[in-house]
Amino acid sequence: MRKVGGALALHVDGTFASFYRPGSARSGPVWDALAAPLAWLPPARRRSVLLLGLGGGSAARLARALAPRARIVGVEIDPEVVKAAREDFDLDSLGLECVVEDARSWLRRTRARFDLVVEDVFVGRGRAVRKPDWLPEPELDRIAARVAPGGLLVANALDEAPRVERAVAERFRGAVRIGVSGYDNRVAVGGPAALDAPGLRAAVRASPVLRPALADLRFRTLARPRRGTRSRPR
Question: Is the whole model's pTM more than 0.90, yes or no?
Answer without folding.
Answer: yes
